[in-house]
Amino acid sequence: MKNDYFRFEDTEHDIPFYNGNPKLSYSKIIALFLGLCLTFCIPFIEFGDMVLLKAILSCFIPLIAVWYSLEGNLSEIFRKPEKK
């Protein structure tokens, strides 16, 4: 059996939060933590009959926190699939 039989990762593109890539300052880490806390609190907040608002906030709050932390460069964690 080869050593790389179970090797699924791509050696050129790996999860980018390794080895300080991207570099996150304390304000960016706080923004990610705040986005996490706000997203966790959304189900406990009463919006009345506005279920759609809860769904939209549950999506956009973490997205905005990640967008701010990566300075709008979402290609740090997302990339187009390519045929191999």
Account of the protein in words:
- The chain has 84 residues and is mostly helical.
- It has a domain at 27-75.
- The protein has helices spanning 26-41, 51-69.
- Helix 1 runs antiparallel to helix 2.
- The radius of gyration is 18 Å and the shape is flat.
Descriptive keywords:
mainly alpha, 84 residues, single chain
Please summarize what this structure is:
This protein has 84 residues and is mainly α. It contains 2 helices and no strands.
Cα-based radius of gyration, to the nearest Å: 18 Å
- Count of alpha and pi helical runs: 2
Determine the mean pLDDT.
77
Helix content: 40-55%
Number of strands: 0
Alpha-carbon distance between the two ends: 22 Å
- Give the CA-based shape: flat
Find the structural class using helix and strand composition.
mainly alpha
What sequence of helices (H) and strands (E) makes up the elements?
A: HH
Main sheet properties = none
Beta-strand share of residues: under 5%
Query: Spans with pLDDT under 50 lasting ≥5 residues?
Result: none
